[in-house]
Each structure stands twice: as C-alpha cells, then as structure tokens.
Amino acid sequence: MLFNLLVNIQSSDQPGAIKVNVPLVAFTASLAYLAIKVAGSYCSQNWLTSLDIPTVALKTGATTHDQEYRQDPQAFMLKCEREYGPVYNVYLMNQLLTIVSGPDLAREFYLNKDLSFADALDKITGMRTYIYSLTKSNQVVDNMVIHWLVRDFVTPKVHLFMPSVVRNMEEQLDSQLEHCDRKLIKEPIRIIEKIVGSAMACVFMGEEIGRQPQVIDTFVRCAPDFATAIGHGTKDFWRLLYLKFKYAYTSPMTKHIKVLVDAATPVILRRRKEEAEQGAAYVRPHDVLQGMLDNFDKYNFVDIEDVCGHLLLLVLASVNNASDFGANMLYYLAQYHEHTDKLREEIQEVLSEEAREIEDLAIKDGNTADAPKIIKPSDALTANALKKMVHLDSFVREALRYRSEMHSFTHLARKDLTLSNGFRIPKGRLVAINLRSTHMEEALQGPDPMEFRPWRFVGKGKSASKVGTDFLQFGMGKRACPGRFIATHDLKALVCLMLSRFSKIEMEDPSKADAALHARQHAPTVTGLLFTSHH
Ligand code: HEM
User: Fold this and answer.
1) CATH architecture, range 92-533
2) What is the ipTM score, two decimals?
3) How sure is the predictor about 470, in pLDDT bands with cuts at 50, 70 and 90?
4) Which residues form a coiled coil (predicted)?
C-alpha cells in the first residue's frame, strides 16, 4: 500500500496530485511508523505474551515468609506452587526472591547467561571487590580461571590424588578420633574440616606443602574468616560500599596468602632446580600448583602471590562446601544405621578384591618388594575401588538429594528477562530454583521421593557426580561445579574410613534428627555425634 502511493507520486506529472498525495503519504507513513514502533515495543517486552509474577500473600502481621518457610520448607513450597503456579515471588532472608519451579525452568535458569550466580553473591555480600583483592590478574567479571584450574588439573587426575587424599584423611582421623566408646563430638564439622582441608591441601599444593600444619590451618580457616569479614545481616547500599572500600585496602585474606607463599616458595625453587638438573628424566608433581606454574603465562599469572591468591579462591570454593557435606553425611550414617551393614559388606568385598589385584600386578611386574605394603585395607581405597562401590555411590547421591535446601542457588537477573512461559523478571531481581519441585518429585526421582532410599540410584546410571535437572546440588550447565568429581570421591572415601573404624555412629539427641539431616549449609550444628570404635 505504501509502496503504491509512492509509485503514484513519482509517476504523477500533475502538481495537484502531488499536493493531494503528500499529506496522505505522510499520514500513512506516520501510521506505519507508529505501528512498527508500537509493535516493536510490544515485541521487545513480550507485552502481549508476558505475565507479571504473583507475590505469595503474607500471613497477617508477618513482613516476610521466613517463619512460614522455616517451619516446613517443603510444605511451604508445595503450597506456593499449588496456589501460584511455577513462578512466584516470596520475601525470604531480607530479599524479594523470584522462585522458579520444575525441571524445564531449572534448565532455562541455568542456561540463561543473563542470570548470574556470581552477581547474586556480589549483591548479597559485596564479595567481588574482596575476591579481586586476593589476585593480581584475571579480574574480569565472569572469568573462568579457577573453574579451568579444577577442570584441567584436578578432575583428570583424581585417580592420582586418591592415595594421598586417603593417607591424609586417615592420619587426621587417627589423631582426632582415637579408640572411642560412645565418644561425644559436639561439633563433628570441626573434625571433618581438618580431614577435608588436609586432603585438599595435598591436591592443590602437593604433599610436602599440604602436610604443613599452618597450611592446613589456612585451608580450614580462610572461609570462616571470609564469613566473619562480610558479617551477617542486611547488606544495604552503604554497608556494601563500606565493605568494598574495606576489602580493597585491608583484605583479611592477606595473612592466608602469606602462609601459602612462604610454604610454597622453597618447594618451587627446589622443584625448578631438580627439573634443571634432571632434564627429561624429571617426574613432574601432579598437584594443581605445578599445573599453574607450568601454565603461568597461559593464565596470565603475575607472580607467586598471584598464584597463591588464585589457590585461595579455590580453597574458598571447595573446602568449606566439601567439609559441610562430609559432616552432614555422618548424620545419614547415624540415622540410617540399618543400611550401614550393606555398605560395610560392599566396602570390604571391593577392598579385598582391589588389594588382590594390586598385589597380583606387583608380582606380575616382578615388583614383589611392594606387595607386603598393600596390607592395610585403605591402601586399596583407590579411585578404581570407589567406582566399584555402587551402593556407596547411591547412598552419597541420595544423601545429597535428600538434604536439599528447598530453594537454592540464587542468581541475579542482569537485564529484564521473559521466561519461556511468559513471566517477566525485571533486571536486578534475585531468582532462585524451587528444589522441592525437582529433587522431591516422583516423576524425576522414582517412588517415594520424600523418603530417604539409600539404594534409589543403584543400576540407574546416575552417579553421585552426574548433574541434571533432577540433581542440582552441584549446579548445572557451563558453570556447574568443576570440583564435583573429587568432592564425591572425598565423600565416599570419608564414609569408607568412618565405617571401617566405627561400628556405631549415633546422634546425641535423636529428636533433632530431621533438623540435622536437612541442616542448612554452614548453619550451626543442631546435635552432636557419638562414635564407637570396632572392638
Ligand atoms: C560437596 C561439595 C561441593 C558442593 C556441594 C559444591 C557445589 C557447587 C555449586 C552449587 C557451585 C555453583 C555452580 C553454579 O554456578 O551453577 C560450585 C561452584 C564451584 N565449585 Fe563446587 N562444590 C563442592 C565442592 C567443590 C570442590 C571440592 C571443588 C574444588 C576442587 C569445587 C570447586 C568449585 C569451583 C571452582 C566453582 C566455581 C565454578 C565457576 O566459577 O564456574 N567445589 N560448587
């Protein structure tokens, strides 16, 4: 139509015709322009299809949903889903949170690059400036350096790390829990963080550095020190500004970096000397530190302080999480003790088989001198052995699933977003996943999802480290936890060592069992544990 009018104007040789047609053309063009603009603006905001997110009604007198949620998280989430559908807003932990439910939205959530976990953490804690004060390089938002360090220098070598992980775990366990007869440990997390911290110190920095007490102490202490530095409570604009200023100039982590630099420097110098002397015959240590030094330029590291700053970031991402889940796992062993015999049986059977295989191999290689060393069962606690323990793997995955906080993994919307079902999420909104709708759904988990069924995943092809919309404890997608392989190996090794040492683990106050099993991450211990050794 517009095109025809324009043709008319150009072909007309009558001045009058032009006079008549110009306003018509202008009017039509303006209408068209207006129509396009309006349609465009509707389209860009998905106005015609988008929906505003309902906010869950507050109980009379309440200003947040915290109390209702804390009373019974599962029931609260289920009620919200039933009354408001898969997307709704709630006021939890001083924040307005948008909750998305179900596996499809969970996938969308993780695959959307405009929903950022790091931005949410920064908004809540102001931690980005703090983190940047630890390193001198790689200070670009969304950089993946620590992810790659784990992907490249930890995951492919898990089998190489296991002997030192197990050795260190055993030593810590022996020194902290000798022969016990219903020995009460009020805060088992304190023991587990030393066990995990010492194991991870050897993975990240090698045994020579990782076994030094001050290094283990740094591995254990840096996350709680970080938590103290950022403090509790609301992070309003001014508090965040103050923290950012403070971190930039006085990072409480400086002392921890110094510990790592002091411990690493002489070892690095010696390694360099040995490499120069031995040339091609030099056997490279397989720890993460060595990987970082060998790829110093690739990762743009500046100096040893910078390398240790990155290692500290890794410690912050790993030790606390793995310790927290390790300690929680002990409550599952205590509560579901009727299943521990089955686990013990499997562990013993696999370890004997593995020990025989190792011995046969040593004899076949003519290395009989090594054979007598493989007497301790834990010598056979290899990655290969853990792979054969299918019941243990299922137990660990089930405990990770069952513990789930019912909403989790808050991300921040970096811009206005419209979900595939039409709901609009405004820029700056914190968005979390409703884990009840994935971790506790029969369609995804099989029968009785609200029950702890330790063998739920046996023969299902779902190992404890396999992420998906049905298992989000390690996140999902490009930024899923790269440490989940070593983390699950650590958890399984811990269970093996505990069951081989203790005939019984009991809760001090069994009435708190439910709270202990579903404990929020890093929350104070709700009840202690009693340990009894095998006679
Ligand atoms: C049971 C123990 C652990 C749990 C439950 C856990 C869970 C998680 C989760 C939920 C994330 C965020 C994923 C996302 O954004 O979608 C994450 C990130 C990360 N985790 Fe773990 N983690 C554990 C242990 C470890 C260990 C042992 C390591 C290192 C060896 C590690 C290294 C990391 C790193 C480097 C990131 C950041 C990834 C990135 O920025 O892309 N984690 N972890």
Assistant:
1) Orthogonal Bundle (1.10)
2) 0.99
3) very high
4) 333-364
User: Residue 533 is which amino acid?
Assistant: S
Structure tokens at 354: 């593995």
What is the pairing mode between strands 417-418 and 529-533? unpaired
Distance CA(476)–CA(524), nearest Å, equals 28
| C-beta 475 within 6 A of ligand 1 | yes
Distance CA 225, CA 204 (A): 20
Are the CB atoms for 307 and 301 separated by under 8 Å? yes
Lowest-pLDDT range of 238-252, 331-345, 498-512:
238-252
DSSP secondary structure code for residue 468 in this structure: B
Six-digit token string for 50:
């988008």
**Across the beta sheet with 87-92, what order do the strands follow?**
87-92, 95-101, 430-434, 407-413, 115-116
- The three-state secondary structure class of 85 is coil
What are the tens digits of pLDDT across the range 98-155?
999 999 999 999 999 999 998 998 888 777 877 888 899 998 888 999 999 999 999 9
Q: Which of 250, 197, 240, 238 is nearest to 220 (CA)?
A: 197
Q: Ligand 1 atom 11: the closest Cα is on which residue?
A: 481
- CA of 314 relative to ligand 1 center, distance in Å: 9
What backbone phi and psi angles, to 5 degrees, belong to 183?
-75, 125
| CB-CB contact of 464 with 396 (8 Å) | yes
| DSSP 8-state code for residue 413 | E
Distance from residue 384's CA to the centre of ligand 1 (Å): 23
Per-domain residue ranges of the chain: 1-45, 92-533
For the segment 314-358, what is each residue's pLDDT rounded down to a tens digit?
999 999 999 999 999 999 999 999 999 999 999 999 999 998 888
Phi, psi of 88 (to 5 degrees): -155, 160
What is d(CA 440, CA 398) in angstroms, rounded to the nearest whole number?
11
d(CA 200, CA 168): 9
Residue whose CA lies nearest to ligand 1 atom number 31: 483
Task: Give Cα 9 to chain centroid, integer Å.
Answer: 67
In order, the DSSP letters of 37-90 are: HHHHHHHHHTTTT-BPPPBPPPPTT-SSSHHHHHH-HHHHHHHHHHHH-SEEEE
**Cα 387 to Cα 496: distance, rounded to the nearest angstrom:** 13
Closest CA to 100 of 479, 459, 531, 429: 429
Name the amino acid, one letter, at 389.
M
